[in-house]
Prior knowledge:
Layout: H1 8-28, H2 34-37, H3 40-54, H4 61-77, H5 83-89, H6 91-109, E1 114-116, E2 119-125, E3 128-135, E4 140-146, E5 149-157, E6 164-171, E7 174-178, E8 185-192, E9 195-198, E10 215-222, E11 225-228
Amino acid sequence: MPRGGVSTQVLTGAVIVIVGTLLLLSTTGVYDVGNVWRYVPALFILLGVWALYRSGFRNVTGPVILILIAGTVQLLALGLITGAVIASWWPALIVLFGLSVIFGHWRRTRRVPSVTTDDFDLIGIFGGSDQRVASTSFRGGTATALFGGVEVDLRDVEVADPPAVVTATVLFGGLEIEVPDEWLVDIDILPIFGAVEDERPRRPPDVEMKTEPDLILTGFVSFGGISIK
């Protein structure tokens, strides 16, 4: 987690815990959460705003779509708009989807942003986020993909005190990590209806194998995939 800030994974986990707790209170009848439940969409609005801020406004499309959808649900829950209004304006979602396709193409044709940092915190929500990291004392980072994708290039980093640790949370999305060819990666991911693949070519038999990993990849993937390249 980058110094001086809250990890996106911590914030995302907190939102999930709050929603789960409210559901549990409701289903068990311990507490009437009707009034509180009306304001749950506001949590996802805050999550979208946080994703915009943490990405330096490079990852725009996904968080903006999340903010708009959650904002619409919030206004509907508060009775500030009606279903008829949503029925009239739903084609705007098609427009937003088209803009996201155009923006995604533009992102693929431009240079991937490069940062000099010892750790990173990336999030892709209903969209994509990518970054190239350069560091001589790399420690690790966090990557969160929720209905989106995250790409991180670590080929220009050096691990001063191995192993570095990258924690991944992937749900209905994908994560792609590029690492140096000589790195030994220890995969400690819990896959539930998901997959993790090390797609690098096998080392020649005459190359001495390392005994200690350069990188530990840990976390969780469900209905998605993680690939190491």
